[in-house]
Amino acid sequence: MDRIPILKVGEFLLVSVQVDMHDRLALTLQDDLTARIVADGARGVLIDISSLDVVDSFIGRMLGNIAAMSRVLDAQTVVVGMRPAVAITLVELGVALPGIQTALNVDSGMALLRKRANATAPSAGS
Amino acid sequence: MDAAQGNKLNQILRQNDGRVLTEWVQHQVSADTFRGDLVSENELRELSRQLLAAIRDALARGNASDIDAAEWTDARELLKTVSATRAKQGFSPSQTATFVFSLKKPLFSALRAELARDPEALADALWTTTVLLDKLGLYTTEVYQQSRDELITRQQGELLELSTPVVRLWEGVLALPLIGTLDSERTQVVMENLLTKIIETGAPIAIIDITGVPTVDTLVAQHLLKTVAAARLMGADCIISGIRPQIAQTIVHLGVDLRGVTTKATLADAFAVALDRTGAKVSRADADGSS
What we know:
heterodimer; A: Transcription Regulator spoIIAA; five-stranded mixed β-sheet; 46% helix; B: five-stranded mixed β-sheet
């Protein structure tokens, strides 16, 4: 079965989604990612969706869930590289992903994660 | 019969050419719809002469009814030019059509003079002439409408292009000065332009300036919020600036929730915030470190 690879970069996890996300794949990713966060003690998760042409409301909610779960496990989530068409579609669908942080590309996403990780005192998150 | 009628008409027209033309021009000049400010009598005479010649030409070739046929090409072209020019000059449709319709009177009196002794032929000739001139007159109205439509479509396109420029203010700071009323179609273009530019330049901050937007209703506010939300999903922050006092009041009265969005009164304020966020600092070259 397909799996989306999860790469460890320092104290962060990097997920680059490069195939069309179908629902099962998204659920598998959710399982794998939460397991990895716990196993590696990761402080942050960076999800790169720059190669995704289509994101439906289910995947959108999935991203929201992943972010919420990571927060519970004390890891920040940043979604990077969303395409304009995808962003417009999600907004039209009413999926605003309020709990998710976003950045334009992996570079600025990483910078954001580092800043956040440095800033997090015991009272983590927002 | 058609060809015969055409020939007869042509004959009568040729015999009375000068008189019909003079009467026609006089008739046009003295009519209420004459626009002496836009077209001179000489021009009118020249146009009338050309049209009369074109009509005679078509009639001579034996076609007195079907103005879409090849024989009428010259007349159609002439009328098209006249209508298009008049549409641009600001003539009304009826003023434009009167150019053709006013030919009826002189033409009819010529027919009456020629065919006075043959009432049946006169009736036939009158009927053919009326139908023909009606068609030509309607044709001018059609062309008039067409050229108006083209004008409007072109202007709409130009407005759309003109009003959605995305400019780069600083490294990592984009600005989108909005001018004019925002409708759904324009917002879509604006949104797409902005998001594409954000990707192209990798700018994390965009300022949407609405100084030039005359009114903000719930729909416009909704559109703005959507744009901001989409930009945020892509990882860019939007600042809305140029909110005039009345608009601030309207927004609050309408109950639009702008709490999630940074708003500033002027573009300068928004720019200062943007610079601050990108970590840039602007200071006077000769000042000694005062802020």
